[in-house]
Amino acid sequence: MTFGEMVALFATRAGLKKVRERAEGAASLATNFAMGGPANQQYTTIGDSRMAYMYGGASTPRSSALSANSVMNMANALLGQRMTPLANYAVPGERHDEYLARLPQALASGAGYIVIHGYFNDIQFGLTADQIWNGYSSGAWSTGLKAALDACRAAGRRVILFTETGGGGGPYQFDLTKLRETLKINQRLREYAWGNNAVILIDAAYICWEPSATTQITHRSGYFDDYVHWNHFANWMIAKALAAALLPVTVPAPCMSAAGFEYQSALMEGINAIQNGLFLTTTGGPTLPTGITGVRPANWTYSRVGVPTADMSLVANADGYGNDLVVAATFTQRGEQIILSQSISATHMSPGDILRAGCVVKIDAGATNYWGSFMRNEVLNTTMQDFNVTTSLGPSGAPAVAGPDDARLVTHRTAYCVVPDAAGNFTWTLRLVSAGAGSVTARISRCWERQQFTAV
């Protein structure tokens, strides 16, 4: 940008915002290089079940279902999808010496960030903090956690770590011995992070532990369902801290729809297949279903699960990108959904084409018993998802835990999927899901579905 262009931009409010965004992006990039940051913003996870939940497939190296019960996916949504997951080498139930045996694979993936977490199983089955940190001879990875962290740094990778939250009740209540080992490994992690600027440590224990407890680990109310695993709400609280830590050392990775002309009927790589993704055409949509009232923007279909009600309206997008579709929804019980969808013909697509979709969802403050939103995109039987609701269910098959009630903006971006051999249509869907009787006001904007040149 020339000086003259910058002066011209300063003449408008929108221009000020653009200048700030560009300056912040440049500052983030400079900070990243100054801190010896990695060459890319891709990441891979390794650890126990709390990391395995990055994908709906849990322990699979790659899945099309990005999980809602994942701190990494939530943080990335808060970051505007700056980061891209490459693979997941975490497996539920494993100790550090088991999952770290796959560290060479994680490093070989090329990801700039390696996310490592999980010491509960070690401590639960009698390992000490010293054995976790320094290793022990019988382990599959015998040299310990510190050697793994050193290997990541030597390879030029940035490491994301979390302190251990331990067993906080029921059959998993840590006794005094296990509590001491938890405190010791957490202090090891803190001291390592203090001395290494390529390490990002999020103090999950600080976020999740009940401060008033005096004799044993006690988790904050509403953060755990089984005394071990971070639930939907806990993941969100930890994700907010992680997003704040990553924001200064990452740069924006734009993916949202920017203009109405991005849609083209002849689909090919780079082309947006979503019609009216900015809700510029405010009328002409299908007939409203029972329980839903308001505007009918062209090309978009509403539906529902259960008997929630919703009023739809359109307001100008605050950043100037067309309109927001405002959904004021009221739920009567857990598991109800308000669904926005668009069916897209695959006439111009070919087997092997790579697809990915997304949108922005802004939640107003004051939501009650609102679980959250998730996207689902299907090409015949090939499914790609972001924040898959099926990974956070209660006994009756519906979301068990309400999300936060604070205002927030999340950027959805599905994992990619490949068009199968058979031709057919595919469907873009966004679902707003309840955790009980309550309400939410959601503002949906900048919807897209693009074919990619590469599988990243």
Itemize the secondary structure elements and their pairings:
Layout: H1 3-10, H2 13-34, E1 42-47, H3 49-52, E2 65-67, H4 71-78, E3 84-88, H5 96-99, H6 103-108, E4 113-117, H7 120-124, H8 129-134, H9 144-154, E5 158-162, H10 176-194, E6 199-202, H11 204-208, H12 232-246, E7 292-294, E8 301-305, E9 309-316, E10 323-331, E11 334-344, E12 354-363, E13 368-379, E14 382-388, E15 408-413, E16 417-418, E17 426-452
Parallel strand pairs: 1-3, 1-4, 2-14, 4-5, 5-6, 7-9
Antiparallel strand pairs: 8-11, 9-10, 10-17, 11-17, 12-15, 12-16, 12-17, 13-14, 13-17
Helix pairs in contact: 1-2, 4-12
Distance between the termini: 29 Å
- Corresponding CATH superfamily of the largest domain: SGNH hydrolase
Radius of gyration: 23 Å
**What is the overall number of helices?**
12
List low-confidence stretches: 1-35, 57-63, 386-398
β-strand amount = 25-35%
Structure summary, number of beta strands:
17
Into which percent range does the helicity of residues fall?
10-25%
Q: What is the total domain count?
A: 3
CATH class of the largest domain: Alpha Beta
CATH topology of the largest domain: Rossmann fold
Shape: globular
In round numbers, the mean pLDDT is 83
SSE pattern, N- to C-terminal = HHEHEHEHHEHHHEHEHHEEEEEEEEEEE
Q: Structural class, judged by helices and strands?
A: alpha/beta
Largest sheet: 12 strands, mixed
Shape-level CATH architecture of the largest domain: 3-Layer(aba) Sandwich
